[in-house]
Sequence to fold (326 residues):
Amino acid sequence: MPIPLSQPSIPRQLSWNLMIDSTAVVVTGSMTIGSVMVQLVNRLDISQDFSDYALWWPKANIWLTNTKWTLDQYGVQSDAHLNFTSMHKSIRLQLPDLRVLSITANFSVSVFAAVSKLCKDLGIRHAEELSLLHSSKVTNTDVSNERRTSPRRRRHNIGTLNRHNSMGDSLANNSSTVSTLCSPTTPKLRSTPINETTESTVRHQRPISNLSKSLNSLVTNIDGNLARTPATPLKNVLSQLVKPTNIIEKSRLNGLWYDSSKSLMEQNTNENDLILLRFKYFTYYDLNPKFDAVRLNQLYEQAKWSVLSEDIDCTEEEMMTFAALQ
Fold:
């Protein structure tokens, strides 16, 4: 008589609680990220469009955007704490002409992809020439340097500063210039009030389906103004410019560039932070005044402020030649 062999039982996978914000979700290591998000949305029981939301792991500093990957593939365990947040957030973007624009950016893609999308919405071609810069300021050491310099050296520095101010004033007073000075704290890009519907779509989080519409309406309102910078007194702007006094401070400024291969969230950027949009790679081609009015104006404004803040070393003759090219 044959003896029946007992078949080994397949062990069940252990389930555990995963904390997402303040909600505990029962999961297993083989569950996909998409299944976890569906279970979380069902637990929240909120009638809202979550198509723009994704899971963020603060401890590992990564986005869990691949919905087909499992928790084991990402290395998520029971001690992990995740955040369920939107991928598009509002930022305060300072343009090269020092105007500040409230706009929505993608925090889940690389900085290179985010800059390409921002430049497309702002009407700037060849986004590979630009990048994002942190707004941290270098410590001002003018007082300590002034104590160590002689009175004769101080008089020379004061004369040099006054010479730069007089050149900047001549730029501001020239009414025939295409690009004039502007205020770095101007929150609006039009002299007339922007439509409240358009302003609310830019400042508040929107799902992906409505994001393109809101940004397209924004470009329609500001595209003409970005090609012409409004005038403002020069003394209100020079006091807010970062003026590096030595090579060390210049190197610190150059170290504030964002890593183009990482996302904004991975580089400790929060919502409504001030981020600088600047030309980083000075190799320009295909400059066409017909299609690049915004690009040419922003490029000229960045070069002008770099000269006035003494970020670029040049002679007085070179500055006068540059001031004539408008």
User: Anything to note?
Assistant: The longest strand covers residues 88-94.
